[in-house]
Amino acid sequence: MAECIFCKIVRGEMPCFKMYENEYVLAFADINPISKGHTLIVPKKHFESLWEIQDEDLSAIHLASRKLAHAIRESLKPLGLAALQLNGKGANQVVMHYHLHLIPRLGGSPSLPMTEWEFKPGNRDAIRETAQKIAAAVK
Length: 139
Ligand code: 5GP
Ligand code: ZN
Prior knowledge:
Layout: H1 5-11, E1 18-21, E2 25-29, E3 39-43, H2 55-76, E4 80-84, E5 100-105, H3 124-137
Antiparallel strand pairs: 1-2, 2-3, 3-5, 4-5
């Protein structure tokens, strides 16, 4: 897509700090890092979100995520690593080109904000009803 920032990065029309690429994917440093080592992995083809991305591109992203996770662990020795992927403006997706965030948490750094939520038991009937609704829609 002509105006898409990540398509421009893939085409080499905008700079990035590249970490890895293969036929399907490109991995580079997030320019507004939440933590040291914050990495983005994008498909080279333009897909907006998880609802559009094709099987082979999605598989390639996740295989690359494991490769990058090993590289991050070896180079930065983080306490842990979050993989985060947002779909749709309602979930705060800002760049509308599919991307997976790898966000390491290093020693001495505060916990990652998006990884903390309170465990509060839900209503079992409501949970079952929703699960059944989704299950019935699986294709
Ligand atoms: P989203 O909220 O869509 O999951 O996150 C988009 C991410 O893309 C943000 O973390 C943001 O910092 C990153 N980003 C936006 N524009 C650029 C850019 O031009 N270069 C790089 N490297 N990252 C970008
Ligand atoms: Zn794009």
